[in-house]
User: Fold these one by one.
Assistant:
Number 1:
Amino acid sequence: MPDTQVAAAPRQLAPHASATTLPARSAATARKPAHKSLGSRWRRFVSPLVLVLLWQAASMAGLISPRTLAAPTTVLASTWELIETGELPYHLLVSLGRVLTGFTIGVTTGAALALAAGLSRLGEEVVDAPMQMLRTMPFLALVPLFILWFGIGETPKIALVALGATFPVYLTLFAGIRGTDPKLAEAAKVFGLDRRGLIRHVILPGALPSALVGLRYALGSAWLSLVIAEQINATAGIGFLINDAREFLRTDVIVVGLVVYALLGLGADALVRLVERRALAWRPGLLKA
Amino acid sequence: MDIHAPAFATHDALRVRNLTRRFGENTVLDALNLDLAPGSFTALLGRSGSGKTTLLRTLAGLDEAPPEARLDLPRPAAVVFQEPRLLPWKKVWQNVMLGLPSSGARRRAEQALTEVGLGHRQDVWPVTLSGGEAQRAALARALVREPRLLLLDEPFAALDALTRIRMHALVLDLWRHHGPTTLIVTHDVDEAVLLADRVLVLDGGRIAADIPVDLPRPRAHADAGFAALRRRLLTELGVDQKEAA
């Protein structure tokens, strides 16, 4: 018989609680130094601003040559110029298209495989072993092979992004499905849910927190893949812009490209956060927020 | 052998014959026979590991009964577990209606929740409920199915003493009002005597004692006969009277 005191926690949330801590170090946050301090919103901006000012001062004093790193003011001017000529929007759209296509393919594949492996024994036996083996390989190492297979056009770039997104989604959704609280599943069974109802009302909602963490990882991974992919003989996209600028020693344009990459990552992360807030409104942490 | 036959839909008496459950070498239920009268309230006592929960799970249909056993079980059955087992991602009223057709669901859920005194909390997330409230919601979820067999698996064990007293009164109320054949599994002798018409003690895989409780309701610890019954049950459970004092 279960002991009185031990069972005193009536919440079934424990399995998911750990997920709340995970998003903090996902995709976009990895790109900027993680400031853990929860001081006022403004204070967080002080040190980056000081750094930029120092950078500007050093550039103006001639300590940093424009060949090494363009001054912030130059970067700003170049940004404006790139926008005005339509260059930046064009390359941005190309990059976004690649990420969107690859990400969609990757998430769909990862989710489909996780559902197959998570919901059936046979599926697990067929799918899980190869996935676990493949995931240990740094997928960016596949670039040479991809070039051989797909040439140097759009296909290898999109494939790389897709691959980057597949594994985080697969792993987290699979773990989420398998982490279903058996007690909840049992109760649902008593109350007349069939297998389909169980999947829809218990297993999938229960796996969602984990899957959303995976989605954020997938975004980060997709972004990284994009950067690498765009180094492969691209003729358009932010990566091309950066590579092209390198040829002409335009450090200002390179910085513009980097900033755009960072902002895109941030934006994507914010989007997933928004989805999380909507979809996981029932979680205790989010109720207070 | 027809174990989960719909035959029990027609009558409310519960009948179990020759139910044996083994886990490895360990025989938990040994050719157990059990009869519960329609609409009766029975408490099942037993030491830890005596097979109380195993029996309840079989009656709930959660565990498959062996083919040689014969079970006539009132249906539908509903279970209230020790933990509320509410789905955290569904509002309280949605939890109550889980697995039921959605037509008029909201209204029926509201009725059931009002009946357990939780009408004002139907639209909140389960995490925001206190332990007692969550267990009330679990009761409402069981009742809304209009069960002919209500199985309670130590439903109040995790609640504080004051909440437990209120829940006892509530359960009796609901039982009187709806009249399902009710079986409560508990390790609390007082709870058994307070609630049930009949107390069974499970030992060695069989019903070792079958003791009627004819104390008038509402019952209190101070009632004549309460202490004697309590002592008798404790003895059946193998508790020394000095230990119990």
Number 2:
Amino acid sequence: MAELTYREAIARGIAQEMRRDERVVLLGEDIGAAGGVFKGTVGLLDEFGPRRVRDTPISEQAILGAAMGAAMTGLRPIAEIMFSDFFAVCWDILANEIAKSRYMTNGQMSFPLVIRSGNGGGLRFGAQHSQSVENWVMAIPGVKVVVPSTPRDVVGLMAAAVRDPDPVVVLEEKALYPIKQDVPDGEIVDELGKASVLRVGGDATVLTLGNMTARAVAAAEQLASRGIQCTVVDLRSLVPLDTQTILREMGRTGRLFTVEENPRLCGWGAEITSIVAEEAFWDLDAPIVRITTPHIPLPAADALEDLALPSVERIATTIEKAMNS
Amino acid sequence: MQLAHVEATHRASDTGTALAVRLDIYRSMMELRAFEKRAYDLFLQNLVKGTSHLSIGQEAIAAAFGVAMRADDYTFATYRGHAHTLARGVPMAPVLAELLGRENGLMAGKGGSMHLTSVEHGVMGSYAIIGAHLPIAAGAAWSAQYRGSGQVAVCFFGDGTTNIGAFHEALNFAAIWKLPAVFVCENNLYMEYTPIKDVTAVPHPAADRASAYGLERIIVDGNDPDAMFDAATTALDLARSGGGPSLIEALTYRHGGHSRADPGKYRPQEEVDSWLARDPVPMYRQRLIEAGASPQTLDDIDEQVRVAVDAATEEAKAGAPPGADLLMKDVWADGSASWRN
């Protein structure tokens, strides 16, 4: 057992896979000698050398294109897009090329690659370095999406992503980089598409993801002292989506809340709400409530950003109000 | 651009290439020409669905590279990729069937004309978003470099591609990593319907950018198969020996419009005529006869190609439409399209 920060867990998860598999290579901006702008790749250049850990120019299309070309010819690249907002400048490679080429070629090619990216707000970086884009990525047929919420999950989901034969986007929550957790020693490998039930309560089911997870749990603890017992489910993976766990846990309470950092329209909770409405409507005792960032670009000032992202207080208040209405 | 202004740095009216190799190039050019003409005929019969982009007039480039490349080298093509796919030895019938949207197509009808792919022949895809495949080709070249396989990634694209960002990202990337890649710009003077010279800051859209990436300025007469073969061999050897990428600008001309929807009427007739007079197929035939090939040998090739295209057409047309089972297949490596449990 060792205490690791979320950022240290990234390097540990990658190193675990690079030691195991010579085909795993790393590329991105400032990931080598600098150890990553968020220090997520510290030590990897020293251990694995410049042949396997490669700094790139500021060329996001080249980074993802190179990862794709390498993956289709036998390597298992891990590419970093520094901020997930930058997906917008290489969206073609992700959405048109990586995602579609297996299908278009009738399965002639596979793309066993991982794209890591710093995602989400809370760092006062302003609208172009803060957005939660998990809903962008999950909208693409052909790309898997995971969002770890703890250092342990970073290791396990990174390993699962690297070993997966399909393209996986791992969204690293920037606000979580400094958080610490005791992480077991030895190899950790999770399964993609498995949600975690973090807390069990009989009154309401709260679905959450990434940076919102700790807030949802804190809100649930506040609510418990006010007599409302919540189940909290960390989805961990949007594609594949653990619909079975979602429907089971919703069915146990009859009440469903989502806590989403993505802007409201077409956020991941909208898809889940749709699934529940179609498949489990009669298990619901009341309308589903989505707690999201408003449909706005994120402001920079701390006072405003704190108003935009779902806070522990907003989550607790919204759930309490809905439960008491 | 008139031919008088073509200042190709490679010319090969006399070449050291063996006649047998030149006959291989000739055969490939004949196959590409015959295939594209047949594809056009099938459009007119409304058998080819969607769009299609023909390489008639530009065959020398794909054919010369196809003969010069090693069997395990990688080809990356564009939506105008029938020629580059066939030139790697992919049989005509599945390519034609793909155009017809049949289950015996190269990708069982799931890709179509613009996405021809045959991994077993090294054809690593045809890409229909301008510029996207240059960085992908760089990635395949990186993989070859990493694995020490000696393979080279050859990436074909049009003149219009030189004005999109991915072109510049990929060339810089390939240059700094000294990747075994050959980037081949087929400059047919028009980006879709617009003269490339009207929308580009330099006269040679690819070659005049080469120096920005520390690369040699290479302009080749793309209608001269021998010159193309020499340029291809030089660039492939350089890449294979660790010398890094090349950027080749091959000057050529498409005889038809941009796509099936385009009659190409925006081009001055005298320009079209001057390029038709330099049609690479009859030019090469005449040159090979002068070089000692017997007309009978060339006639035999022509006849074999004609028979092959007819047979491929019948085989393609005999294919059934793709079955509904293919619709939800192969999004993921496990063969499924499932995104939930």
Number 3:
Amino acid sequence: MIRPTCTAALLLGLCMSLIHSSSVEAAAKLELKKGDKIVYIGNTLAERMQYFPHFETRLQARFPQLNLTVRDLGWSADELDLRPRSKDFNDHATRLDDHKPDVIMAFFGFNESFAGKEGLAKFESELEKFIDHTKSTKYDGKSPTLVLVSPIPHEDLHSRFLPDGKANNDNIALYTESMKKLADKHNVVFADVYAPMLDPMAGNDDLTINGIHLNDEGYQVFGKVLDEALFGPAPAYKCDLATLYPEVKEKDLQFFYDHRAVNGYYIYGGRKNPFGVVNFPAEFAKLRKMIENRDQRIWKVANGETVPAEIDDSNTGDFTQVETNVNRPVDIFSPEAEAKTFKLPEGYEINLFASEVEFPDLENPVQMAFDSKGRLWVTTMESYPMYLPGTPPDDKVLILEDTDKDGKADKQIVFADGLHVPTGIELGDGGAYVAQQPNLMFLADKDGDDKADERSLILHGFDTADSHHSISAFTWGPGGDLYFQEGTFHHSQVETPYGPERVANAGIFRYEPSTEKLDIFVSYGFANPWGHTFDDWGQNFVADASGGANYFGAAFSGDVVYPQKHGRLKQFLTKQWRPTAGCEIVSSRNFPESAQGNYLLNNCIGFQGILQYKMKDEGSGFHADPVDPLLVSEDTSFRPVDIQFGPDGALYIVDWYNPLVGHMQHSLRDPKRDKHHGRIWRIRYTGNDLVKEPKIADASVPELLDLLKEPEYRTRYRVRRELRSHDGKEVSAALEGWLAELDKNDPNYSHHLLEALWVKQNLDLVDADLLKRVLTDGDFRARAAATRVLCYWRDRVPGALDLLEVQVNDENPRVRLEAIRALSFFDGSDVERAQEIALQSLVHDQDEYLEYTFKETLETLDKRAKKD
Amino acid sequence: MKHCTMLNRWIFPGLLIAATLVLATPKAAFAQGATDAMVRLLQSGKLPDSRVGTVIGMIAERGNEENLGILFQEATKADGFNPQLKLEALSALKKASESRNLVPAGDLSAISGMISSEDPTLKTLGIELAGLWKVQATADTLAAIALANDQPLKLRRLAIDSLIETGSDQTAATVAKLTDASQPLSIRYVGVAALTNIDIQQAAQAAAEVLASADTSTDPADMIDAFLADTKGPDALAAALKDKMLDGDVAKMCLRQMYSVGRSDASLVDVLSTAAGIDNNPDPLTDEQLQSLVAKVLEKGDPARGEDIFRRKELSCLKCHAISGAGGQIGPDLSPVGATSPVDYVINSILFPEMAVKEAYIMKTIVDYDGKMHQGVVVDENDDRVVLKDANGKELIIPANDIDLEKEGGSLMPKGLANFLTEEEFLDLVRYVAELGKPGPYGIRSEPTIQRWRVLKEVPEGLQGEANPSTGEFESQILGLGEDAWMPVYGKVNGKLPLADLAEIESPILFLQAEIEVVEAGKVAVKMSQTAGVTVWIIDDEFNGSEPIVADVLPGRHKITFRLDKRKLEGDTFRAVVTKPSDSTAQYTVVGGS
């Protein structure tokens, strides 16, 4: 191989600075030889190249005779010195050692650049170490050629919700400069994609989805820029790029199923014995042969040859036959027979809303959501537990509608298919947010025909070592933030325009889609939290599935410094059963008065049904005691996994209906794992009428605002979600009028004010006056909720710490707790003041939660103080 | 703006304290500053009395040596904290030392005063702190307590352990006296356990001597634990026992202790198994063996016999696992396990517990710089320390800077349980576990049956007659008794409590107790499998067993007490259900747990 000479590199650098915005270079920088294997490593810029492989398409078209193999090992938010992976991940032939690359293309510097000028020296030393290490490591007896690729600029999307990128770009330019300097010094190929991307990014078309991650068009531009930066102007190709592109994409997809195989814990990790070792070796041998088949198709198409439309994988071997270890007949009852096993307290009735009998697509349903038209959306997972090589997964999002309002679905629409284990869903913003491990996908319906017409991966980096621990149980918070949870074993890291966010071994994420902020809302040693809900006043409760623990959310959702986690928190109820899946608070005029505010909790093994608890205030937190369960079944295949009140005030239950649920008790390929059943049940109370379904879709803004006075939490939840799709100015103006007309003597006046504040939070309209009004409201629950809003507006409300000082001295313990919690988020020069304010809380009455949150906040602030 | 004035009431004192803090705070080094500020707050006297305890706890948890020194002086000076706060402060200081290896700065001589205190709690704390803080001045006193025959065994053990910690030169002589053949067996075990902290090889020799002459009158559990806690302990003891003749039952007691804390160190298990005459065969099963076992379980296994085996004390199953919510809380409740776990999985889980462990139960093994081994499930972890829950349900605190090695994986469940079983018994046990949770006799019960019972360990002589106790006698001698007076027993899956399990209670009259947690007031009733010779109290409402038993109860946790006259009982089991009359509004649960 011919290595780039000093002169070439120098010359090129000179060219780059002369022809600043042009990507056309005179000299080649990187020379390749036949059969070279090129591996990408680095951050999300590299990771997303597998979904938009425009660069590789150009590369293969440029060198059709070289038979190049390209593998994308890019990983969300990776940094040179920080690349967390789940246990034993490296045993799955994922290391560079396994790939034996001839060329390593390294995409680093973006996440590192958030450390700014102060972090530059550290970055440079890490980069030098990395260069040394890469150049001195031999694979198959020779060292690879290293190519350093700079970060791309942060694009200004001219959105009122998003940063303009100037601050980030100052840093990125600095780090790019540094990379170039060290590349020159160590005679390493360097591709500056920062400078040449500035111009296209300043054009009319958006090239990114959020300022930092390229979209399809962005990768087309980027592919060309990178290709020309490395090899000069493109020659005439032997093939049509548009024909080659899908071949590359298909290869990347199959490689994704290998490299990012979900359930790694059962394939190569701590739980591979005794089952995984039986079936997975053959599965991955087959998959790897399939990938090679696709490499060959790429080479053929690049050479201008045609390939059959159907890919021939007949040479890829067979699967190992898996025997079941279930030595008893597996009971699958009809929905009618299952219904007969249900027992409910007097006055309640249960009916089948939908099942696989009328809707055969309803296979392994997991999570549901109701849209503004009152229709039930549900994800299905027939591909669970994971992709089988050669069988494209076809999990779906279904819309089930009850058009004649008889309490039974009579119409089904497939909103999206071809998905892979969608463990969570929530609707909003003109589409659906769906888990597509390891990513979060947004499925948009641009033309309103109830079909997803645009699929975007909007967040990356949620670990999948155990697919049943991956992001799940999606729910909106009152302020328009989307929450989802993940379980232990996982090491997740996500790039955001504000910097990378990381968590290891379980946590709850909080995502603001409009601003693209992502926080680790709770970093806690959960087993597998699969249940999260809010009450009327914005207090949230978390149900940990495996251990059956239930937690009061405010106490442990203060900020921590990664990798620190919150310490053990007491549970607000005494566990009766485990494992649980999904929780909900009763808020429906259809249900009896005595049940309002009760905490409902699904349990799916042993006790199979819905547990019920009476909630009460206890100091700063809550306590709940068991009352009669709402539902008990004797059908051991009944698996309630999600629960939510519908627009009619009845309670809907997703039943995963499956005799085998143990993830580790049977082979993941056990033939007795059911894939074809699923039910949705509906419980109503016969003593009261159903709730009149609110008109949310197509309602005017004033009509929507009036619905915020409805008693049902889920109505207001869906109304706030709907208001997000309206123009901020219009909503703001309508809110002024609505607020002015509120009756101050209305017993719910405080709550209405709070709803108004939450609507503003949903639309990211910071309103310090309204906030201050609610912060000093007569109802402590409103003050507590406003304190949480203040926490998330802290950088934009002047005097935030002064306001928190008042809240920390509030007469009510829950308000004080919210304030102490909020103080944990302050950083830099505010740390000292935040500590002082937190200490003031000690003069007031204490309880276990207050002491806990105080200690946690102090711990975080101490860490920051020591760091500074 | 009514609420604003109302709030001012609260803001004012807070701001005053803020002013105190700010004025006294040097601008630099605020990291420690938060704790220093708490110390100033404590000393300022401005803190309301009810909050002093909290602040003491926080200072102890976070403070440096100087902060802790101030706390210690405040706790021990004559006009310092009140007795309650004093105890709180000293306990918090103990925890600080255990968690963070910190010794309070300054004069520690007040420890001697604590050790000579009449208050048993203070005395115990004093002994423990003397060791933790290595206060050599207390060595004489500690040695005296360790050798004093009139002191409780537990205290003597603490004293000798602390004496060793101090590093005093009296240690060796004191320990030698304790292990001497002239001492009673219980003391010799204590002495050997202490010796493991000085010289593990010497301790092993001494243990072999003691065990060779031991009978089953005293459980060697604590001494065995001491060897297990040392990384070199099991091998050393095994080597020392090689040439000794042990009583088979003593060897069994040692083995049982190992298994019950989840240990199966090969060398020691081998020696003890040989002595106990147990066949020790830990070879993993081939797939064929496994399948043939599964077939045998399905063909021959009897779940009813299996349940009796599960309930045997020496297997310790119920020590860790609950059934129907009643039993140990260390491992998972097994009630639904058969419904999700196939027979092969159950077999593997009993023979090779480490093969598949639910995430909440994964064991951590920590070895500290002294070579001490700690095993348990992580219950909490931060930068300062790790807290493990061991197989006995005890929480162990290990300071982060003591940790030499740590390893995750495996299970707290003992590996050699099957060694105590015949093949038939093993098949029965597996069958029983595999049936749990399946519809049928071992299915999940939905009736609120009493599963967790308390039985009165010693029935007062005066209450063993034919007559029921008077109201006064009942309240003072039964209802008013503390936890220690009762022993836990658990009903079978079907809710029946075998009275034979209570044979060790030497009294014709038995007192059993259950608890209910009432959330909403209303009527509750009690229904029983037999009524002749039974008297029931719902709280203090007395009912003859043959009459309807119904009472109104208010929210809260309440006791239901049963008096069983064995002379009049007809069946050999007893079962009771707490029911809700049809007109009742009561919401309650029967309390389970350990």
Number 4:
Amino acid sequence: MTAPCLTIKNMTMAYGDFVIQRDLDFTINRGDIFIIMGGSGCGKSTLLMHLIGLQHPAKGDVFYGEESLWQADHKTRQRILQRTGVLFQTGALLSSMTLAENVALPITEHTRLGSQRIREIVSYKLALVGLAGFEDYYPSEISGGMQKRAGLARAMALDPEILFVDEPSAGLDPVSAKLLDDLIRSLRDNLGATIVMVTHELASIFAIGTNSVFLDPETKTMIASGSPKQLLAESSDPKVIRFLTRGETESRTENATENQETCDL
Amino acid sequence: MTVMTVNNAPCEINVSRKENALEAAIVGDWVLDAEIPDLEAVLAQLGEGTDIKRLVFSTKALGRWDSLLMTELIRLIDYGAKQGIQVDTSTLPEGIQGLLSLVYAVPERVGARRQEIRTPWLEVIGQGGLRIYKDSQALVVFIGETALSVAALMRGKARFRWVDLWTYIQDCGPSALPIVTLISLLVGLILAFVGAVQLALFGAQIYIADLVGLGMTREMGGLMTAIIMSGRTGAAYAAQLGTMQVNSEIDALKTMGFEPMEFLVLPRILALILIMPLLCLYADLMGIVGGALVTVNFFDVSLVQYLDRTAAAIHMADFSIGIFKCAVFGVLIALSGCMRGMQCGRSASAVGDAATSAVVTGIVFIVIADSLMTVMCNRLGI
């Protein structure tokens, strides 16, 4: 379970001369639910863009297993990225297609399955995220939470080894957010996939995160990494503690035990 | 991670009877690109008139698996459930059990699935008629609302930002000059060529000036400007307002107490009404220049002669008619662009539809209005 799945080596991210984050060095292990956290505007989503091949790093590289993502030619990069799935913040479903067509899109593109089989897989994926029977709906006809789950179904269409998730609980009510967290965790457990999640929802971070990295917008680098619960209990960095306790530093110990309890459930 | 090309063990499903239970042994690698065995044989055993009461699985020889196996299992389970057979999934690997419980965790919502309904052709025609009726109703409502906001403007009560008006004027005026120059120059050129071929037969090349001058000022200058602006500005208006609709910006304005018709639509319409006559005048000039280029270079008429003839041929009335028409076109373009934008749905494709339909509506309106006005001018003798 501890084979490195994704390694970020000495990476610097920048828009032109404007550096977002520098000297990022961390490893994501297979089977992890890896949390990328930090305050607003620290470059969490930008980091995700670099990991999924949408943005070129200013320096350094990303390794999928042993393979470099950014040294590779276009074709190799496509092949590497085909083993990943991405759930975007708002679902990013194509609005001119039904849910079934959205989920079927990557399958028809990358496999040679017949249309009947694709239909079965699409129904299975939609049922998996609790959207059985919604095949013929357009994204605009369903709620935001459902759009997000449909986005998850599309991200998982090709049984990815790594699933990237951008702010899964943003814009969802706490119950739906928790259900989505549970769904992501059980998908990890049952499919053996690795999850990389960008979020600043403390509830999610403590509930499902097994490893994490904390990005700081002021020093423009990562200032902590490790299991979120361990960070909360052991970190000596005031910024990390302030983030993990929502600024209520004195409640640190209570919070830690409380979270421990909820997680044991 | 680097394992890409492994030879998959062929996947099989073997069934064996054990009293009234059927054991399905799943063998091999069940991955998406594998050749899968036909399930019909298994399904047939579970079919009508069978005395099988239970279906159990054996997965000792199962290799890798993914969505393919899952879909097949779901098919078996659903079929079994329909036949009243007890399906025992407890011998399946933990991962598969977990996924299955997820799949069946949320039962399909009753009534969610959509049946494809065939509409009879009479209904299709009827629906089309109703749509046209509703569309024209919406058009009248929109014109009425625009009139109300213009009335508010007259009373000095319309609320919009004057800086917006200047931005729109900049957008639809000076920024449109290059394309208007190009098109009008070429239209003038074409008019001159078309006319010259006929007029040269009679040695009457000098009258190319009349043809181009009258053609541009009365008709083509305004019409071409209107068509350019419909594609350029009308579509832009629809897309801008449509995107604002998608982002709930229009709702935000309403809650802040702004009337979207005044705040968004009025300045856009004003900008086009103010700018279109000027653009038309400019297009007239460019058309005449285009005509002069052809006539002077190819048909033995001097520039002075050409200009003199042009001055004699066109009168103030011709200019006024052209400019008036163009102002009317401006209103129509702005109306259709803003109307489609405000009616836009809330998805990305709806914005595209709005822009398309703004241009189509705009051009239809322009051509109809132009015909009407030309007939009227003819009847009135101007």
